[in-house]
Amino acid sequence: MSLRHDVCGITMNTDAPDANGVIWTVRKLNDWTSPSHIQEIGDLVGRAGGSLLTERHGVHAPSLEGLAIAEDLDSAWAAFNQLNRMPGLGAVGDLVVYEGAPKLLRVRQGDQPKASAPHPHNGGWAIDYMLTFVALDPYKRGVTLHTQAIPAGGTVSATSAGNVPALLSLKATGAGTVIVRQNGSGQTLRTRSSVASGTTFDAAERRVTTAGGADIFPMGAPSEWLSIPAESTVTLTNLGTAPVSATWYDLYA
User: Fold this and answer.
1) How does DSSP classify residue 99?
2) Any idea what the Cα angle at residue 86 is, between residues 81 and 92, rounded to 5°?
3) Would you list the domain boundaries of the chain?
4) Dihedral over alpha carbons 131, 135, 138, 139 (to 10 degrees)
5) Helix (H) or strand (E) holding 7
6) Cα distance between residue 38 and residue 118, in whole Å
7) pTM here?
């Protein structure tokens, strides 16, 4: 794993000072490996054991522990106050870890930030801190957005390097019917009628929106949502009359 971390707009573990002259270090990254695992078990009638009703990933709750190092006391207190805004109550920020390919979690503040008062450190000042986050979308994603344009009647290949299925977002780039088949599974995203250019079908958010951002779900709900299986390449065929653009991120548990 690379040392670098990007945390809510601050780059850590590069020995590069921020705007206040503070160097941020990370000594421990906790619970980055995987989101929580949720199982619902039901009782069986007539024999021992149980039945697995559902099994899914829950929220992801990583935390960071480290040291913020400043040359003077004013800068150390600026870092102390900055911790309360990472990302802040009700706010959302990005946590990026450079583990070979960088991976990103969109996080909210979990438990309250914890920080010591500034204390002397190597001729300057330092703060011990701990930041706890929660990611409602549990999957880490690659930072690169993959895009494929699919003209009406066209077929393209789509690859995901992630270890969980990559959810596809489709956007009509012209007016018409949207009918896109994932040829590996045979699943087909099909609209009930023609849609305007700019209509977007977002499988991750389960939302259908107009070019202006207005929700038209569930009336505009497609027949199925599409995804690319983990670590796979599939072909997508546009059977509709509207050209579309398919986008996705590599997703990781």
Assistant:
1) E
2) 145
3) 5-141, 144-252
4) -80
5) strand 5-7
6) 40
7) 0.83
